[in-house]
Amino acid sequence: MNLRLLFLPAFLLLVCATGNSRTFDNETLRYKVLYRWGLINKTAGYATIRMLPGGAEECRAQLTAASEPWADRFFRVRDTLNSTMRRADFSPVFYEKLAHEGNERKHDIVRFSRSGATYTGDCVRKVWKKGKIFRDETRTLTAVGTTVDMMTSFYHMRNLPFEDWKPGHTLTINIFSGKQKEKLTFKYCGITDVEIKGKKRPCYHITFIFTGDNQKKTSDNMDAWITADEARIPLRLEGKLPVGKVQCELVEN
Fold first, then answer.
1. Helix or strand or coil: residue 164?
2. Burial of 89 (0-12, 13-18, 19+ CB in 10 A)
3. For residues 20 and 65, what is the distance between their CA atoms, to the nearest angstrom?
4. Could you tell me the pTM of the whole model?
5. Which of 2, 40, 48, 128 is least buried, going by the fewest C-beta atoms within 10 A?
6. Helices (H) and strands (E) in the chain, counts
7. What pLDDT is stored for residue 61 in this prediction?
8. Average pLDDT of span 34-55
9. Which residues on neighbouring strands pair with residue 207, listed in sequence order?
């Protein structure tokens, strides 16, 4: 299960150039992660994203993800993402990823600072394999222009002015992880109906494209469908796997 398929959103993903108009205080969204290949359509895990109590100037969010017992036999996932961000524009302050995937454990931390239009991320990355430390690294990432992490992107994305965009419109920003800096291009594909639990809702269809500084893709594209209303709730996200695909669908909010 790839966390990029949960929320770069996360889903999940982009910064609102016009500022923050939604707060999402006390919001909890729960998703099921489906594996689909041919006639196979099986729930592989669940993910929950919460906006936690915060202060007047900063807010905190957390994402947890876990694979189902049947999927554990093939690839066990127990992941947590924590983020602190500024309320004014959801710009990142602190990002942490605690990942237990298969026989590998990772701990990434990014501490953000900003000077004018330049963002700096002081990163620490540790990786354990079979219980032994495999990698212990520090690095500094810099970028000019809007910059997010895997968590702040989720809330920034939902404040973008999709209603003013035409199909084919794109926006490119920077995204930091503990490992690297990437470019994230957000492509608006128009409005389409999405059916969840027998109910159809009009949604903004978005495609996410990840590239490095050399313009080469760093991963496959992702697609997200976000309700075309004030709540801007991501209903579905989809990404390809070497065999089949993964879909994340909203269970409750």
1. helix
2. middle
3. 27
4. 0.84
5. 40
6. 2, 15
7. 94
8. 87
9. 187, 223
